[in-house]
Structure formats: structure tokens, C-alpha cells
Amino acid sequence: MNVEAKGGSNLVNVYITKLNGMSSMNTGQYVQHMAADIAHTLGIREMGIYRYHADGESTENRARRLDGIIAGINAGDIVICQFPTGNGLEFERTLVRHIKAYHGRIVMFIHNLEAMMAENPGGTLPDTIGLYNEAEVLIVPSYGMKQFLLEQGIHSRVKLIVQEIQDYVTNSNSLDLGKQKRTVHFAGNPDRFPFLNTWDYEIPLKVYSNQECAGKHVQRMGWMPSDRLLLELSGGGFGLVWYGDEYGRRYLAANSSLKLSAYLAAGIPVIVPRGISNQCLIEGNHLGIAADTLDEAVETIKNMTEQEYQEYVSAVSRVAPLLRQGFFTKKCLVDALQMAMRKDMYVYSESNAVCTMPEGKFEYVCLKESYGGNLALSWTFRGEAEGFLIYDADSGRLIREVCDGLGHYLLLKNQPQGIHLIVKAYVRAVKGKIVIAESDVAAVSQKSPGQNLVSLIMPAYNAEEYIARSIDTALAQSFADMEVIIVDDGSTDGTREIIRWYEEKYPQVKFFCQPNGGQASARNTGIRQAAGKYIGFMDNDDMLRPDMMERLYGAAMKNDCDVAMTSVYMLREEGYVEMTTYTMEEDTAVSIDEFFDKYITLSPVIWNKLYRASLVKEQPLAVNITYEDDAWTPYVLSYARRVCYINAHLYEYDRTIRNTTGIHASWRKPIEEKFLDHKQFILFFLENGNPEKRPLLKRLALRYLMAFMNSYSYPKYGELKEKIEQM
What we know:
There is one protein chain. By secondary structure, this protein is α/β, with parallel strands linked by helices. The protein has 5 domains: about 1-160, Glycogen Phosphorylase B (Rossmann fold, 3-Layer(aba) Sandwich), CATH 3.40.50; about 185-325, Glycogen Phosphorylase B (Rossmann fold), CATH 3.40.50.2000; about 360-445, Immunoglobulin-like (Sandwich), CATH 2.60.40.10; about 455-660, Spore Coat Polysaccharide Biosynthesis Protein SpsA, Chain A, CATH 3.90.550.10; about 670-725. Helices cover about 35% and strands about 25% of the residues. Strands 22, 23, 24, 25, 26, 27, 28, 29, 30 and 31 form a 10-stranded mixed β-sheet that branches. Strands 1, 2, 3, 4, 5, 6 and 7 form a 7-stranded mixed β-sheet that branches. Residues about 345-360 have low confidence and may be disordered.
């Protein structure tokens, strides 16, 4: 590649080093060959470096060797040095000195930093940092490594680029994508990954190694060249990236695993340990599962539906072509050359100080005991963050990262009850993560409940897989004057055991059981037991933001309203989706007539609202109606005087853990049955609603019927419309 020099019209050449002399199975050599091949497509020339036993070589012989390697460069040429070379730190320092002696310029492409993972990095790390400071530009594999290098003393004049994930280039066009197989693939040897010899899960494991594996349900596939490996992987399943020891865990936290790229390039989702350097990329793009343990990962696979698997495959299919064509490496190389040739690109200084932004602050943080010996951390952040870092406040150790700027809840496993935690909000910049705010210290506390101003009612049925999270977010409310009423509706799994634990632990939890009668019946049971002045509802698989009850109760009292409501996010695998919003002015009382006339939506929901208790107790829920929210919400609202609204998405309707509900099942009914369900809920709110508001309810009923008539060619909708028009 020839580029014009900064100071004039002379052209300069660009070279990239390439490691040779290793086994064809050596990952380090494979990665460097791939990067050099990608660079060649950009017109960058190759500079070969042979792997040899450099320790015993004399200074003179090494100088002659290096002079031969770099003999072709001229003053101003740029050399992209791929490190490590495998020849040792002294060889690499001498190589850099010789390039500079020829007045060449240095870009370093760091594929891994072994000194970072050593038990005692103090021996070689300072010398390695000194070597890296000779570069104009550093390409590093992860934001974690970038931050580490900056903390260890990389000069502010050195420009840094994060590769984020390695490519996996292939010319194969015969990949068989899209099939779900409850199979796990792993590329690695049992001597480095002991779990391969103890694998006893029912999910079969395919191991791509020539070494024998003693685990149950393990099939040794043997080592395969890259194209054949991709073809085998593309048949379906999950690619596993895991560690065998503490060294491996630290390595994955700072480096980028080639096997991760291989799995994704083959089109299959991945399983990775939480804390891996690519976790945000994986979770943010729905490329796979991040888990604390292999037990957790395998259980997730066992419970995954075909639809959920296909959503992962679809997400991977968008990233795989980038990896197979080398675009992550191409971008790094082009950016590096831009940085080397331009004075205006990404020069920055480093500071460990927290950046304070007026619009970004933590208003609340809460740490509570959760079911199963776990801890539940919740927080309220005002501002625009891209993620959160959870630290042990005493040791300064990073515990977890939440790659979700809207996150507010984290379940922590295997942490001591006496731990103290701090949450830090960050945004991403060219220089990496910048902390913009941090919370107060959170410790496990048992706040005494206040008076019961609010009653939160949660019906529960066979929810052992997710109800603990819902209860955690209810107990994490910043509003202390509330009770949590949970009504079990005849569960046949372990739901009651979980609720009973919370009842015994937290005095504000009130637990009632009844034979299975449906969700509306369970809610009515809770209403009869409620002592609060206001009543709210929550489903057993959803989440509340920590300030929901405080803000809704405050708005209801300030505006003297019978009902306060909030906007809603639906949580899907692809992220947050606006579900329920209103165009009302915020925190301002609106008459119920105006609300029905301008703002009420079709398919209203029950659980984004806080209701005056007398309103709810006098108008109980409709039982044995399929669309009970659609039936009851207009009915109860017709008896209200004033409502108000907080547009803060304080309720989260989660469809990531359970795709289908009873309503979803009703959608698949024959049109005759579907019509009867629709007729039932419309007539309920028309016939039972406030007679004084009959015109408002009638207009809402006709809006429903017009929507149904546009969706279904079924004459009885028209007949019902005519009947209601005459009422």
C-alpha cells in the first residue's frame, strides 16, 4: 500500500508483520496470517518474521537478522507489528528499534498480552508497557485491555483502537444454517479445560480436539481445519467459550477468543461466561447466552424454544458475514493508518477522575436478600448511560457489568451477605468506558415497613422460574409505605415455597393461597385483603422500576386523582420496545371524560396504573373473561373522576422469559370463538360501566369493533356494531 506522506508528496509504503514457522494448528500464527491476508486486500505489504529460539542468539546475529527482515523499508514507511511474535520481549524491542533506526513509523497490533494474566505481572509488564509506548497507534483486542494499558502507563500521545472481536475469514459458501440442535460445540483440549472430562449433562458436547475426553455425552471430533470446522459447526447448536482455570478467566476478560469468532462465523449462537471481554457485543446484539456457570447455561438451552433459538440464529446471521469477510480487522487497519497520517484524529488525555454530568445521577440504590441465597441489587439512575459497572466498595473489585443503559436490577450469586456495593454508570467513547456517575454504597438492609398507603397485588401461578425476580423488584421500591400481596392461584410447582420464603423474610409481604380460579379471581382475593389507600397490580413475570410506586403515588396525591398511570416498555430479545404511551401532559390532572375522548388506547392494561382503593374495591374484576384487562380497565375507569400520567416507563412487560400467555393462546382460536371472546369483554364494560359515562364507553366499543372488522372478515362483528349503535 502506498499513501502520501504528511509533510509532502512522497509516497510511503505500509507493511504488516506475519509470524511463520509454527504448527498449522497454532492459534497465534493463524490469527496473524489471517490479519496479514486481510491487510493484503488493502494493499498492505507483508513482512515475514520466523519463529525461532531467540534466547541464545547474540546481539550481533539478531541485528543482522532484523536488518534482513526490514531491509526494504524507507524513511517514513509504516510497519504494523503484530505482537506477540513468540520470539520474546527482547526480540520485539530490538525489532522496533531497528525500524525506528530506518526512520520507519510503528503501529502495533496486539493480539494478546500474556503479562496481564501472569500471577506476578510486575516482572515483564513494565517492559511491555515501555515497548508499547514506542508505537504511534495501538490496536488492542478489547476495551478491558485498553483500560488496563492506560492504567499501567500508556502515554496519552499513543492512539488506541479496539478491535472488539477477531474475524474468522473463510471462502466457504456451503454453510448449513438455522437448525436447532441441543448440542454444544467446543474447540479445545482436555488438558487445558478440565470440565471436558467431567461433563455429565444430558446435552451432548462435541469436542474438536485430538485428545481423548472422559466426560459423559462427549463426542471427540478431532482437530479440523477452519473451513471444515465451520461446515461442521453450521449444522446447528451452540458454540461454547469457557475457561479452564483462573488464568483462562483473566485471559477471556481482556482478550478476544478466536473460537468465539469461529462459532459466530459458522452462524450459531454462543455460550460465554459473564465477564468475557465481548459480553456487551454478545448481549447487545443477541448473539448468545452469558452465564455464571455451565449449569446455568445448560439449563437455559434445555428450556429454550425453537422460536427463541431462531431469534438467536437470525441475530448471528447479521454479524457472521462481517467476520467471514474480515471487516473488523479491515476497520482497525484503516483507522490505524488514518490515525498515523492525520493530526486531528482521536488524540486524548487520560484521567481517572469521575466525570460529573448534571443530568446523570443515581437517586436510589438498594441491596436486598433474594431467594436461594442470592442478593438483589436495584438502582434508579437519572440520565443517559450505556451500561453500569458493579464494584465491591471495600476491595474495589469489579463484580459485574450490566451492558444495558436502561438496566435497574441485577441478581448476584455467590456473594457474601455482608458485601458493600457501588454502581457506576458509564458511556462509551473512543477512549473506552467513561464513568459519568456513581451511586452511594449499598449494603443489605432490612427496612421496617411503614404504613400501608399502597397495596401491590401480584397473582401467581406456576412461576417458580421467574417470580423471585418480580418480587425482588417489588421489594426494592423506594416507597416504603406499601405492602406486597401475593396470591397463589393453585400452583403445582415450587412457586409457593418461594413466596413463603419471602413472606417469612419480609414483613411487608402478605401471602394467600386459593384453588385455581384464574388471574382475575386471584386479583380479587388480593383486593379483599388490601389495606392500602391505593392499589396497584403486577404480573408474576414482569418488573417494576424502583421508583414506580413513589412517583405514581406522589402524582396521585399532588393532583388529587383516582388513577395515576405510567408508560410501559415491552422487553423483547432485541431490546426495549415502546408498548403503552399516552399523549397527555405529564403530572397534570385530566378529567375522565377528556381521557376517554382523547387518550384511552385499545387493549388497555391493568398493571401500569395505581388506583384509589375504594374505586377498585367497589368494582372488582370480571371473572372468567378471556380479555379481562380489556373488560375491566374501561369499566373501572368510567367510575373515576380524574387521572394523571408519568411518562417514565416505570413498568416493564417482559416477554424474554416467557413468550406466550393465555391471551396469546386465544389468538389462535377459530374466528367464531374469537368473536365471542371479543363480544364478551365489550358488553361487560358497556353493561357494567358507569351509566353516566355510557356515551364514552359506547364510542370505545365502536372503536374496538371497527378495528376487529378491519382485521377479520366475519359478519357478526358488523351485526354487533349495529346493535351497539342502537343502544
